[in-house]
Amino acid sequence: MTATTPPDCDVFIAGGGMAGLTLALALDQAGLDVVVADAQAPSTTLAPHFDGRAFAIAFASFRMWKALGLGADLEPVAQPIEEIMVTDGRPMGGVRRGGPSLLHLHFDREEISPGPEGEPLGYMLENRYIRLALDKAIRERSRVRVIAPMGVAKTEVDATGATVTLTDGRTLRAPLLIGCDGRGSLVRRQAGIRTVGWPYPVTAIVCTVAHEKPHGGVAHEFFLPEGPFAILPLVGNRANVVWMEKHAVSRALLAMPEAAFLAELKRRFGDFLGDVRLEGPRFGYPLSLQLAERMIAPRVALAGDSAHGVHPIAGQGLNMGLKDVAALAEVLADAAALGLDLGDPHVLERYQRWRRLDNVAMGLATDFFDRLFSNDIAPLRLARGVGLALVNRIGPARRFFMTYAGGAAGALPKLLRGEALAA
Amino acid sequence: MTLAAPTLDPAEVEKFARIADQWWAPHGPFAPLHRMNPKRIEVIRDAILRHTGRTAGGRRPLAGLEIVDVGCGGGLVTEPIARMGASVIGLDAAEETIKAAMAHAAGMGLAIDYRQGFAEDLAAVRPGGFDVVLALEIIEHVADVAAFVAAAAALAKPGGLVVMSTINRTPKARALAIVAAEKILRWLPEGSHHYDKLVTPPELSAALEGAGLRPDPAIGLAFDPLGRRWSAGDDVDVNYIMVARKPG
To answer: Which CATH number belongs to the domain containing residue A300 in this structure?
Structure first.
């Protein structure tokens, strides 16, 4: 018999962001031994000023977090989205010329899940609460090992595994290396996976506001010529604003004194929710589309932003990443239950078949929506207004959009149906 | 110790020895076995759990069982069986194959007892030594089916299991497993299988009974080309698995 050294873990995850930590919890639930390395210390990522974004979490994604035990921590801070109003033109009550178009699209959750027990269209969740809940859950699972702050310096693969060299020189070996390390993914680059994509000429300004009147769980997305302006309801009389402008305009807005910025914000926001004031800092995120050519390579899989970064127009980026996580966790749980090599090419191919088409389709669909809505050409403006009104008139089309945006279309992984993975 | 005459055909052993380094190549000559492997292992695992009264779940459902994989090749089933907790001996006639299997298991960090040899040799030194005897995709390569089945039966403990899988001798099997897989798709090296050496479920069942075992009905493994997936069921036209119990 040959002397053998067991690997250090079943799966090594590079990147402890939302995708990486959710994946770690899911794999732990399936009985796998996971190591996560993240370049940043948890104290940095958990600080309120680290990330001002809030995410529209599809109900399927929220079900997964509940199945992973995060429900009690997330439910009190999750704002259900009861309705989505998509309008071509200015917010109602805004002082700028134009006013809201009469042509609009209205999504109401009563249509797909009637009754008080039904699930909402989705939830608005602030990034820092998600991070806090994930961090707490990870700490409760003694088997998950998180190494942070610790970067990955180098990855190498051979016939039977991946060897990861950390920035302190330590090496760890696992049959499978998963890159949840974001858009600039080192894992992706070292695996030789190329990306395709293009930058958008806009920077998203993100901030949180407090307002006088209750929002009633209604999310508004206004398609302004400069790009979308979204008012997304948060718990309490608060909302997250996502406001897209050309880079130079955004830079100027972000650099303005707070009072001047608020005045500009109010001109677009309008007064339908009463007086508005800023809560916390403003953030700027330049937008781009980036799709990895493959989601797998020998002994490597990508999940989340490392595989796809899309336009946030439909609030799909994180949800796509969470769908990757649910599919990958299920594929690996199935493989582990049969004693298969977790880095087996046929195991990884099943994951890629499950996710790749959906990701590319979503990336291109969000790009198409952006092009359709980000301009002021009169015929196009009319056409998209009629399009919105048509989709609004046709029940099945609207329900399809709602179900799809809710993450429930296609073959759903167990976690997205709210089922736990068996250990 | 007396060595029974090996029932393996030397030409067959030589044929597989030549491609020993290809066992784990994902798109190499053994790719069809890799594709079939998850469903094949699931059927085998479930049969073992059913016959031993164990419950599924966890990562080591086969812990405590002693299993021998006769004709283990590169270890495509041997490794998963070991990961599921069983104590495994992998046996193969070709030395090159055993070397490749050992190197792969070492890389994966698995403790598997790989040995070059024949079922008859091991039966001579460890008769009745195993809870489960696996002989997968091997019966179609042996020179004497009855003698091979007898050797496999001799390895099983009283009350133990003998699990065999192979390709049926039907026109459909010839079309899919020989003509398509070898000559058209070139999934398998030409000459991997000879039609007249294939064994039908009734013949295998009779051979198992002849060795004093009690075989269950054959379980079919069928490939759905549209869904690109294998499923287990009643269709035994091409690939099938037979589980037999040794009285005891």
So the answer is: 3.50.50.60
